[in-house]
Amino acid sequence: MQITVTTWNINSVRYRIDLVAKFIKAVRPDVLCLQETKCPDDAFPRKRFKRLGYEHIALNGQKGYHGVVVLSRLPFESTAIRDYCGKSDCRHVAIVLGERAGLKDPITLHNFYVPAGGDIPDPAVNAKFAHKLSFLDEMHLNEALRPAPSARAIMVGDLNVAPLECDVWSHKQLLSVVSHTPIECEKLLRLQKAGGWVDAVRNKVPEPTKLFTWWSYRSPDWTKSDRGRRLDHIWTSDKLADRVSAIGVVRDYRSARRPSDHVPVTATLEL
DNA sequence: ATGGTCGGCAACCGA
């Protein structure tokens, strides 16, 4: 049995619903995890996704900001939402795929949207950066994000950190740019290690090959200089690490009409 | 060195 999982920061699911539909028709992932849906749950385009084959939907959205969702062709056993940093700002949703999806051994899947952190990389003067660091600390300490060595789990999302030198267009020029500062890279890699997570994307596209999933809107032509960053991630628990057979990053979606600034990242698992 | 662009939602916020 094969399962494909996609993560994509869509920057308004309603504004970009046709682009998502196009991606679905081309790739047909079993599980589609979106971030920055910017959509209250009661306004979420459920019917459109059901028609596209995604009958099972785990929502955590709100008006205007942030928001995450897991859309699944496979039925799941349960869903969970957790608040971070004492805020109900819709940055996490989890599901468990189990018997109903045809899996004897269940898989827990977490979908995250880590705070971007603002512009100034100093928590003393920038509350947004302080929030981001606290969020990463809470992820580090959360027992639910430390699966047992025998457990099957997946973590995806816009983690808003490009932790490796080859995850950014220029390591030196981005050392003091939020998303690639040493403190956030260390915190992300620390929680990855503490949870026993394996970077599924880097297992397939190893260092030092550059790989990006995001290009700023503030660049007249993103293809000319290719100044991207790898902010979107797919990790698996150690138990699943050798089950990942393919990774796809579809850069073309950055060139779509009315694109998101992020592109979809897809993992194929052989179960 | 600086400013550059998005979407939501109706003046700026968050990115």
Strand proportion, as a percent range, falls in 25-35%
State the major sheet. 6 strands, mixed
CATH class wording: Alpha Beta
Please name the CATH architecture. 4-Layer Sandwich
Helix content: 10-25%
Task: Look at the structure and give the mean pLDDT.
Answer: 97
Q: Please trace the helix and strand order, writing H or E for each element.
A: EHEHEEEEEHEHEHEHEEHEE
Low-confidence stretches: none
Strand order of the largest sheet: 3-4-2-1-14-13
Using the coordinates shown, work out and report the CATH topology: Deoxyribonuclease I, Chain A
**Gap from first CA to last CA:** 5 Å
Count of separate DSSP helical elements: 7
- Radius of gyration based on Cα positions: 17 Å
The geometry reads as globular
Please explain how this structure is put together.
The chain has one domain: 4-Layer Sandwich (Deoxyribonuclease I, Chain A), CATH 3.60.10.10. Strand 3 and strand 4 form a beta hairpin. Helix content is 21%, strand content 26%. With 271 residues, it is an alpha+beta fold. It has a six-stranded mixed β-sheet with strand order 3-4-2-1-14-13. Helix 3 runs parallel beside helix 4. The chain contains seven helices and 14 strands. The protein binds one DNA strand of 15 nucleotides through loops.
